[in-house]
Amino acid sequence: MNVTTTHIDCWDHSSATAILTKLLAGLGETRLANTPSYELVDTLRNRLEHPYIVILDGAGQIADDNVLKTLHKIPEVTLMCIVNEYRPFLRSHEMGIESWLEEYTDIEFEAYTEAQLQTIFEGRIEHGVADGVVPDEIMAFLSEGDRQPSAQRLRGARPWHGHCHAGRRARGRPRDREGIDLHDVLEVDP
Known about the structure:
By secondary structure, this protein is of the alpha/beta class. The protein has helices at residues 16-26, 37-47, 65-73, 86-91, 95-101, 114-128, 136-142, 148-152, 175-178, and strands spanning 4-9, 52-57, 77-83, 105-108, 163-167.
């Protein structure tokens, strides 16, 4: 079976047009920046012949709920919405969207360990900050204790306690044939 996947960083691509353009790019389609969203949706629907797994990383940053609704209604699309806090993400959407999001499988990830956070921060500092800008003491502080307030200030820091919300409506078929279940999720290093 041919399955296409596209990962979208919603911090960088939060508008409906940006998300749809990235999805079409994942299918080898290019569009002008000023292409209307409805044309992008029509092209996406017409191009899809096989399952398309859409990973929306930082889905809480999406500016327009309608793009979630649109993607949810396309039978070939399976959404994976990655968010830091699942319940606030659900509550931030209109009732109709919230109800079908609740049907998706909620996958909660374990908290990062201090050693994992240290490695993550070191990599970001090594590649994104000039030498000596972040002292070793700050690195140690960020990777221990109550890390959330400190780490949230580092834009783009991955959650050490996050959720991946994935799914597809059953449409009369068993879940294992239609969407993603827990057996499809692989553990990865941060």
